[in-house]
Write a structure and sequence with these properties.
Layout: H1 4-10, H2 22-33, H3 48-60, H4 65-97, H5 115-128, H6 131-138, H7 143-152, H8 163-172, H9 178-204, H10 208-219, H11 230-236, H12 239-254, H13 258-265, H14 269-283, H15 289-296, H16 303-306, H17 312-334, H18 341-348
Family: Belongs to the PIGU family.
Pfam families: PIG-U
GO biological process, one term: GPI anchor biosynthetic process
Length: 349
């Protein structure tokens, strides 16, 4: 984890962003340890819990940082496996109750008994051995911790939309009063979110972290190139159009797909969650390969319908080719001066 390759990966724009960079995180912890508010400048943009945890880790167990990242990755894989187990069992029971209403010759679309044990393992392994998640771990980005927390709880501004499929999934297990269940779930999440931010206020002593975290994301203040879409558009954008397109892009990343997809997939909350998670990664301002690994790990849940996806090979080959060509085009653009931003942006598309 401390080799020269780790340092190389840690500096890659595909792996590290202004939100999850290990260098920024360490610098923020250093400022915090020396009595300086790391949110005063434009350096640190992660939440106070990660700041304090990292400060404590650097103080008490700096030699074991690599092991902590590995353990977080393994913990994320196990939690994804546990969540997949619950979902598959629920889906299997629902399928068993409705089997009489299914059309003939649909057996290949149904979950088999063997899938109850196999699919959760596939989900865990798909995350643990995904090259993107391995790069994320070796690069020691704080997305490792974010994915761990996302698998445990929703603690980011974009995954907040996932409370909708979560509430729908919980409501299915309480059929007596679904609206009360949905309201309780949303209220619990809102209370936890408010408590989480108030705890950040207690840690830091002021509310400056809100603008440095949520405000930084919503206003897209850093246009460093990454695998997302924001940086290219807002580099080319005229200043007097910036606010309009900023609102447009942020609505596109959060709410635009939420309502129509919820209306269409309200009976399939886990599929809704998978789609919203993928769309959030694609359209957020500062995505990284670790975010991609998170939603790719959920694809084995839909093994029964994967055979009906018409472009599996094309999509897989495209991701493979662009993952390889991305760093090459970056080198041609930044170091060799024989390409430009359009080449790299084309790879990220």
């Amino acid at each position: 984890m401390s080799s020269e390759y780790s340092g190389l990966i840690r500096g890659r724009v595909e792996v590290a962003t202004p939100l999850n960079s290990w260098k920024r995180a360490v610098e923020g912890a250093y400022l915090y340890a020396n009595g300086t508010n790391p949110y005063d400048g434009d350096l640190y943009h992660q939440n106070p819990f990660i700041l304090v945890s990292l400060w404590y880790l650097m103080q008490k167990a700096a030699a074991y940082v690599g092991m902590v990242f590995i353990q977080l990755e393994i913990g994320t894989a196990f939690m994804l496996k546990a969540a997949a187990t619950v979902f598959i069992r629920e889906l299997y029971e629902k399928q068993r109750r409705r089997r009489d209403s299914f059309a003939k010759d649909t057996e290949e679309l149904q979950i088999e008994t063997g899938d109850l044990g196999n699919l959760p393992y596939y989900v865990g392994l798909a995350y643990l051995f995904n090259p993107y998640s391995i790069l994320n771990c070796v690069g020691q980005t704080t997305t490792v911790a974010s994915n761990f927390l996302l698998a445990l709880f929703l603690m980011n501004i974009y995954p907040c939309v996932l409370i909708v499929p979560a509430a729908l999934f919980i409501a299915e297990s309480t059929p007596r009063n679904k609206w009360l269940s949905i309201g309780t779930t949303c209220g619990t999440f809102l209370g936890a979110f408010l408590w989480f931010n108030y705890a950040g206020f207690i840690i830091m002593g002021d509310w400056s972290f809100l603008d440095a975290t949520y405000g930084f994301i919503l206003n897209c203040r850093d246009l460093q190139p990454n695998i997302g879409l924001f940086w290219y558009f807002f580099t080319e954008m005229f200043d007097h159009f910036r606010t309009l397109f900023l609102y447009t892009f942020q609505v596109n990343a959060t709410l635009l797909y939420l309502f129509p997809l919820t209306f269409k997939l309200h009976k399939e909350p886990v599929m809704l969650m998978t789609i919203l998670l993928a769309l959030g990664v694609v359209f957020r301002p500062y995505p990284c390969v670790g975010d991609v690994a998170m939603y790719l790990s959920l694809l084995p849940l839909w093994k029964s319908i994967s055979k009906f996806m018409g472009h599996n090979f094309i999509v897989g080959a495209t991701m493979l080719v662009t993952s390889i060509l991305g760093p090459a085009v970056w080198y041609l653009w930044i170091y060799a001066n024989s390409a430009n931003a359009n080449f790299y942006f084309g790879m990220t598309l």
